[in-house]
Automatic annotation (TrEMBL):
Alphabetical list of InterPro entries matching this protein: MFS_trans_sf
Keyword Membrane: yes
Residue stretches spanning the membrane: 21-44, 50-71, 83-101, 107-130, 142-167, 182-206, 227-252, 258-276, 288-307, 313-337, 358-378, 384-406
Record keywords: Membrane, Transmembrane, Transmembrane helix
Species whose genome carries this gene: Mucilaginibacter defluvii
Protein name: MFS transporter
Length: 431
C-alpha cells in the first residue's frame, strides 16, 4: 500500500494538463477495444467475407490523413479540446450507424470505414499534439507507460466482457437471443464512454497550436528518416488491427473467442509496461522497440507454420505484448524528433504531426492493398498465413531506421528542456 501511495503521489506530481490528458485517454481506452475488435467481427458475421475487413481498414486509413489536414485549419477557429472530443464522439456514433445495417456490402463498409477514419483523425491529430505540449523527453516514458497501462487493462476487460456478453446472448437467450441487440447495447456503452472522455477533455484547459502554416513538402533529413519509420509502421498497422479478429473468427470460433483470447496475457503485459514506463530511460527505447518487433515476427512465424487454432492464439498473445512495447518506444522517439526538427526549421510543430500521418498512410495503403490483392487472387488463407509474416519481417527493418534516427538526432537541445523550466508544462496561474 505504501508503494501504491507513492505511485499515486508521483502521478499527482505531474503537471495538471498531463494528468487530465491521461484521464481522458483512460476513459476512451475502454471504448477503443470494442470499436476495433467487434466492428471487424460484425463485418465478418454479416458478410462472411474476410477481405471486407481490410476494405474497412483501407477506407479508415484514407479518412485519417484527410482529417489531419482539416483539423489543422479548424484549430485556427475552435478549441483543441472540442476537436479532440469530436473525434471520440463520432467514433461511437459511426459504430452505431454500422450496427443499423442489415446487409453488408463493399460500398457500405467503405463509407463507414471512411467516417471512422475521420473520427480517428480528429482524435490522433490532437492527441499527439497534446502529448507533445504537455510532456518533455524526461517524463514521456512515464506518460506512455501509464497510458499504455490503461489501454492494456482495457484490452483485458472490454474484449472479455463484450465477448462473453455476445456469446451469452446467443447461448443463454438474453435479449431474446438477438445478436443484433447485443451489439446495440455494446454500441450504447461505447457512446457513453466517449461522452465521459469528452467531458474530462473540457477540464484540461489545453492550448491550441499557433496559427501558422502547417503544410510543407521538404524537410530536414532527420525528419525524412522519421517518415520512413512511419511508413514501415503503417505497413503493419492495418494488419495488427485486423489480423487478430480475422484469424480467431476463421481458426478458433466466434466473438466470445475473440474477447477471451485478446485478454490472454494482457494483465502481465499491463504490469510490465507500467514498470517499464516508470523505470526505463530514453536510452532504453531502442531495446524496447526491438523486443516488440521481434515478438511480432515470432508470433507471425508460428502462425505461418501451424495455421491452426493454437497458432492463432500464440500470435495474438505475442501481439498483446508487442503492440504496447512498440508504442512505448515509438511515440517518445516521434515527439522528440518533432521538437528537434521544429526547432531547427522554425516551423509549427503541427506541420510534423500532419506530415507524419501522411507517412503512416503510405504504409497503410501498401499493407492493406497487399492483403486485399493476396486474398482476392491467392486466397484468404494465403493472406493470413504468409502475407502476415512478410509484413512482420518488413517492419523489423524499422530497428535499423530507429537506430539511425537516434544516432543522427542525438536529441538536440529542444528535447532536453527540464520539466521545471519547460514553458509547455507550466500550468495556468489560476491553477
Amino acid at each position: 500500500m505504501g508503494k501504491l501511495r507513492a505511485e499515486i503521489q508521483h502521478f499527482y506530481s505531474q503537471p495538471k494538463q498531463m494528468r487530465m490528458l491521461l484521464l481522458t485517454n483512460m476513459a476512451y481506452a475502454f471504448a477503443l477495444p470494442v470499436i476495433e475488435l467487434f466492428i471487424g467481427a460484425y463485418i465478418i458475421r454479416k458478410s462472411n467475407d474476410v477481405s471486407l475487413v481490410m476494405v474497412y481498414q483501407l477506407a479508415q486509413g484514407t479518412g485519417i490523413p484527410i482529417t489531419f489536414a482539416i483539423n489543422g485549419f479548424l484549430l485556427r477557429r475552435f478549441p483543441i479540446s472540442r476537436l479532440y472530443a469530436l473525434g471520440m464522439i463520432v467514433s461511437g456514433v459511426d459504430m452505431a450507424v454500422m450496427m443499423l445495417f442489415n446487409d453488408i456490402n463493399m460500398l457500405g463498409v467503405a463509407v463507414i470505414g471512411f467516417i471512422m477514419g475521420l473520427s480517428y483523425g480528429f482524435f490522433w491529430a490532437n492527441r499527439v499534439f497534446l502529448a507533445l505540449t504537455t510532456t518533455t523527453d524526461y517524463n514521456r516514458n512515464y506518460y506512455y507507460g501509464l497510458e499504455t497501462f490503461f489501454f492494456t487493462i482495457a484490452s483485458i476487460v472490454m474484449p472479455l466482457v463484450a465477448g462473453y456478453f455476445i456469446a451469452a446472448t446467443q447461448k443463454l437467450g438474453w435479449l431474446g437471443g438477438s445478436l443484433n441487440s447485443a451489439y446495440h447495447i455494446l454500441t450504447a456503452l461505447v457512446i457513453l464512454l466517449t461522452l465521459i472522455a469528452s467531458y474530462i477533455t473540457g477540464k484540461g484547459n489545453f492550448v491550441n497550436p499557433p496559427n501558422a502554416r502547417f503544410l510543407y513538402f521538404q524537410f530536414h533529413r532527420l525528419w525524412d528518416k522519421m517518415l520512413a519509420l512511419a511508413a514501415l509502421k503503417g505497413v503493419a498497422q492495418g494488419f495488427i488491427i485486423a489480423a487478430p479478429v480475422m484469424l480467431i473468427m476463421r481458426l478458433v470460433g466466434a466473438e466470445g473467442s475473440v474477447g477471451s483470447i485478446q485478454s490472454s496475457g494482457s494483465l502481465l503485459s499491463a504490469i510490465m509496461l507500467y514498470l517499464l514506463g516508470r523505470m526505463a530511460k530514453p536510452e532504453h527505447r531502442l531495446k524496447i522497440f526491438t523486443v516488440g518487433l521481434g515478438l511480432f515476427v515470432i508470433g507471425s512465424a508460428i502462425n505461418m507454420f501451424r495455421f491452426d487454432a493454437l497458432g492463432a492464439i500464440i500470435f495474438v498473445v505475442c501481439l498483446v505484448f508487442a503492440r504496447p512495447l512498440l508504442d512505448l518506444a515509438y511515440f517518445p522517439i516521434q515527439l522528440g524528433v518533432i521538437e528537434c526538427v521544429a526547432a531547427k526549421e522554425k516551423r509549427n510543430q503541427f506541420a510534423y504531426i500532419f506530415s507524419h500521418e501522411a507517412g503512416l498512410y503510405v504504409g497503410r495503403l501498401f499493407g492493406c492493398l497487399l492483403f486485399i490483392f493476396t486474398a482476392r487472387y491467392a486466397g484468404e488463407d494465403t493472406a493470413l498465413r504468409y502475407a502476415l509474416l512478410a509484413v512482420a519481417i518488413v517492419q523489423f527493418f524499422s530497428v535499423f531506421v530507429a537506430r539511425s534516427i537516434l544516432k543522427d538526432g542525438e536529441w538536440c537541445e529542444a528535447s532536453r528542456v527540464s520539466p521545471i523550466a519547460s514553458n509547455a508544462l507550466k500550468e495556468p496561474a489560476e491553477l
